[in-house]
């Protein structure tokens, strides 16, 4: 337990809070990119213990939340097909599509199965050669290498009944899109440590230089987050914009070269739609031509899908950092984990889910705190 104790030291936390308060002289808006960091911040009350002049903006770093409605509806259409075994991680089953979710498809007779690895779907394809097995491949750069490896494995095994519905998105183009938005308020970023453990930090330097914005690679323990905030505020107060790695125990500048190699073999970079945000150029992956036979969108011809977002859900504004979850009129009323209007309420990394789970029903304005 010594390793964990080092990153949960209350005395060190107090010193970090004191140092942040000491060096902060003006308002700053900092975005944590990752939904896992958002949950750590809300669960531990970090945002409430910081100086009132520091605002933490929750970014579009939840892979479930940014999966576009069109892809969800395509998943629902494929999963409802006779003869299909549709495989997904559990966090996607309650994400609402235009009219239903994957749990509803399963209750209506669809063979929807929760798996813990894309290789589970490969085994199912081997065990059921008379069925079409589809894996729902979503996420950021962290989950993509395993999904790429599954496609390679299917190819090596000569499986003709396996395919993947791909909706992978990339962090650096999203940061660029945020900085170029006319409504942008973000002055610095806490980058996601697990993404950088795969991809390295080399993609972030050009963003720092282009937008003159500090980017600090940060972990997920409360002290990791606090140290990331301390380093970020230090840069902002000094008028500096640098790339800083505060998660050196897991992140190297070059990243995981072997993982990057398999990604470049299997995927091409493409424009990708983000739920609540829109299309971000060159912000996702699709299967390369050599592996296009495993593309579920093409295999099942689900290109013409008409989508319909909830008129009450404002999760898109939450994902863009324009709105805190408890500022949405539907939060905790029409929209709850049992009756979600958007993915941000059901995902384990969603900002709305964090606010609901940890009792953040009152806005800062309602308690007279300017954030």
What's this, in brief?
With 371 residues, the chain is an alpha/beta fold. The chain folds into two domains: 23-307, 3-Layer(aba) Sandwich (Rossmann fold); 315-357, no CATH class.
Can you give a write-up of this model?
With 371 residues, this protein is of the alpha/beta class. The protein has two domains: 23-307, 3-Layer(aba) Sandwich (Rossmann fold), CATH 3.40.50.11740; 315-357, no CATH class. 39% of the residues lie in helices and 18% in strands. It is built from 17 helices and eleven strands. The protein has a six-stranded mixed β-sheet with strand order 4-3-5-6-11-10, sandwiched between helices. Strands 2-1-7-8-9 form a five-stranded parallel β-sheet. It is globular, with a radius of gyration of 21 Å. It starts with a helix and ends in a 14-residue tail after the last helix.
Oligomer: single chain
What is the highest CATH level, the class of the largest domain? Alpha Beta
Q: Structural class of the secondary elements?
A: alpha/beta
Give the total of domains.
2
Return the CATH topology of the largest domain: Rossmann fold
Strand content: 15-25%
The first-to-last residue Cα distance is 36 Å
- CATH-level-4 superfamily name of the largest domain: HypD, alpha/beta domain 2
């Amino acid at each position: 337990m010594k390793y964990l104790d080092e990153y949960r030291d209350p005395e060190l936390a107090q010193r970090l809070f004191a140092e942040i308060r000491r060096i902060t002289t003006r308002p700053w808006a900092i975005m944590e990119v990752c939904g896992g960091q958002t949950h750590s911040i809300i669960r531990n009350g970090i945002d409430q213990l910081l100086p009132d002049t520091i605002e933490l903006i929750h970014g579009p770093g939840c892979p479930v939340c940014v999966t576009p409605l069109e892809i969800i509806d395509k998943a629902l259409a494929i999963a409802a097909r006779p003869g299909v075994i549709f495989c997904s991680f559990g966090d996607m089953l309650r994400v609402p599509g235009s009219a239903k979710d994957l749990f509803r498809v399963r209750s209506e007779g669809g063979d929807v199965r929760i798996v813990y690895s894309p290789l589970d779907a490969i085994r199912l394809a081997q065990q059921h050669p008379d069925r079409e097995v589809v894996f729902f491949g979503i996420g950021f750069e962290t989950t993509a290498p395993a999904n790429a490896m599954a496609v390679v494995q299917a190819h090596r095994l000569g499986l003709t009944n396996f395919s993947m519905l791909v909706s992978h998105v990339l962090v650096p183009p999203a940061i660029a899109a945020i900085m170029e938005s006319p409504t942008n308020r973000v002055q610095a970023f806490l980058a996601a440590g697990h993404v950088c453990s795969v991809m390295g930090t080399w993609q972030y330097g050009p963003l720092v230089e282009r937008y003159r914005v500090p980017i600090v690679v940060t972990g997920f323990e409360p002290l990791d987050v606090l140290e990331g905030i301390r380093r970020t505020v230090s840069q902002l107060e000094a008028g500096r914009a640098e790339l800083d790695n505060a998660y050196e125990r897991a992140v190297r500048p070059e990243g995981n070269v072997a993982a990057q190699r398999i990604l470049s073999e299997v995927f091409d970079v493409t424009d990708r739609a983000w739920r609540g945000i829109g299309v971000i150029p060159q912000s996702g992956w699709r299967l390369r031509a050599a592996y296009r036979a495993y593309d579920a969108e093409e295999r099942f011809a689900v290109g013409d899908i008409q989508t319909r977002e909830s008129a009450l859900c404002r999760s898109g504004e939450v994902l863009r950092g324009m709105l805190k979850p408890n500022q949405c009129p539907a939060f905790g009323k029409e929209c709850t984990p049992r009756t979600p209007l958007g993915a941000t309420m059901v995902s384990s990394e969603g900002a709305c889910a964090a606010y609901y789970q940890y009792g953040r029903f009152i806005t800062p304005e309602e308690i007279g705190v300017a954030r």
